[in-house]
Amino acid sequence: MKLPIKKLLLYGGLLLLALAVVFLVIQALLNLSGLAAGLKGILDSLRAIVLGCVMAYLLYPLTRFAEQFLLYHKVTPQAARVLSTTFSTCVLLALIVLFAYFIIPQLVFNVPPLIQSLPSMVTDFSRQVSEYLAAHGQSTEIITSFSDKIATAFNQWLQADPLSALMDLAGRVATAARGVLNFIIGIIVMVYLLMSRDQFIGQGKKLLFALCKKRATCDVILKHLRAINQIFSGFVSGKLLDSLIIGIICGICLSLLQMPYAMLISIIVGITNIIPVFGPFFGAIPSAFILLLTDPGKCLIFILFIIILQQVDGNIIGPKILGDSTGLSAFWVLFSLLLFNHLMGFWGMLLGVPLFASFYYLLREFVNSRLRQRDLPVRTKDYIHVAGIEENGTITYLPPPAIQFQPLFRGEDSLWARLRRKGRPAEKDDPPDPPPDKPEDT
User: Fold this and answer.
1) Fewer Cβ atoms within 10 A, N terminus or C terminus of the chain?
2) What pLDDT does residue 86 have?
């Protein structure tokens, strides 16, 4: 039986494609290091694109608000788009200038002197501890040797080889220059995305409707994408605003308490507060260590202040700003942080909660849809005491587990009365112990 020429060409093309795929896979397996280097180069080249997408995503709510405001005041759509994008870009640049004006001088003027004075601070602190231990008849050998090791390590680090320090400085300058270049390109990408966002959204939906056969499937996918976008935007923007408020409150309060390095500590606390759950500890531990070496009394005051501040943030400020943007309980927040910290490192701690919240939302929607198809309840509390489901779909329940208690001291059936009867010789007139109550069969 002869095959048609079209089928021969089709089978031949599929065979050639399969051979090409096998060849590429074998080449990739034989040259894994080169493949990894190539992928790393591609990712490095796309870093500016990713940065621009992130900035555009963060500034989109502000841009949309400004555009709607201008359209309400009868500005033409094209002019409103240009002006709103320009306004968002100016806000971003203003924030960067404020950061450079207020924060970078604090880092430049406080961090190097702090690093240089750390050995003497450690020595003074260890001397005070040694004097206290010696006054109470305790050995000071461990404290002295530990402080000497820390001071020696710091001095060796500060007096490193000038050539290696120069090479390290050159590498840092090159990295900073690449970062500045990526940031400039990222701003250009951000402006382009904000200006042409309708076109990109339309292209994405066009591709979706072209690939899906059923319109209902497209509607479901778009619904889930909107929900995931709401989770990410609500959490990220809310957490940034919350951290900014906490940093400002911390700076004002530490200045009123006359704490040393108040601005530097406020910057550390505000930045680390972006990380959920563990962020306050990451910011408080090094800050408390600096204050402990400077003034132990103020270190204790700082610890009490941070505890109060985090309680205010967790119970008042955070819920007002974030609300229930993720829909996760405290257990799943902790679980997502530990899991994504292991998988993605620092970025996993920043984005682990909204990523896991998105997965949790999709899983919940899938489970609820399958339950609705079977005419079963979707509330979780309806399944706590479920014993099983009959063939006709009827749900059977178990009674809530109960523990039967007996009185300890009062009454003839109390534990004390039973012990007294067992501890003395039985008499004819004594009634026998009543049998314990048996639970009803379930």
Assistant:
1) N
2) 93
What b/e string do you get for 69-89 counting C-beta neighbours within 10 Å, with b at 16 or more?
ebeeeebeeeebbbbbbebbb
User: How many beta carbons lie within 10 A of that of residue 340, not counting itself?
Assistant: 19
What's the first-to-final CA gap in the chain, in angstroms? 72
> HSE (CB half, 13 Å, CA atoms) of 267?
13
Q: How far apart are CA 346 and CA 378, in angstroms?
A: 36
Helix, strand or coil for residue 387?
strand
HEC assignment per residue over 158-183: HCCCHHHHHHHHHHHHHHHHHHHHHH
Q: Is the dihedral of CA 417, 423, 427, 431 positive or negative?
A: positive
Sequential DSSP letters for 193-217: HHHTHHHHHHHHHHHHHHH-S-HHH
Distance CA 31, CA 29 (A): 6
Q: CA geometry: angle at 28 spanning 26 and 30, to 5°?
A: 70
Which tokens belong to 207? 């591709």
d(CA 374, CA 369): 9
- Which residues of the chain fall below pLDDT 50? 162-163, 166, 439, 441-442
Tell me how far apart the alpha carbons of residues 113 and 31 are, in angstroms, rounded to a whole number: 49
User: Which residues, other chains included, contact 268 with Cβ-Cβ below 8 Å and sequence gap of 6+?
Assistant: 283, 286, 287
Give pLDDT, residue 259: 86
Report the distance separating Cα 123 and Cα 117, nearest Å.
Answer: 10
Structure confidence at residue 264 (pLDDT): 80
List the one residue out of 435, 437, 434, 433 whose CA is nearest residue 404. Answer: 437
Residue 159: what residue type? Answer: Q
Contact of 234 with 325, CB cutoff 8 Å: yes
Any idea what the Cα angle at residue 54 is, between residues 236 and 186, rounded to 5°? Answer: 150
Total residues belonging to the chain: 442
Q: Report pTM.
A: 0.66
Q: Residues 6 or more apart from 69 whose CB is under 8 A from it? A: none
In angstroms, the CA 399 to CA 382 distance is 13
- The structure tokens listed for 375 are 């005419």
- CA trace torsion 285, 288, 292, 293 (10° rounding): 80
- pLDDT tens digits along 208-254: 888 888 888 888 889 989 988 888 888 888 888 888 888 889 889 98
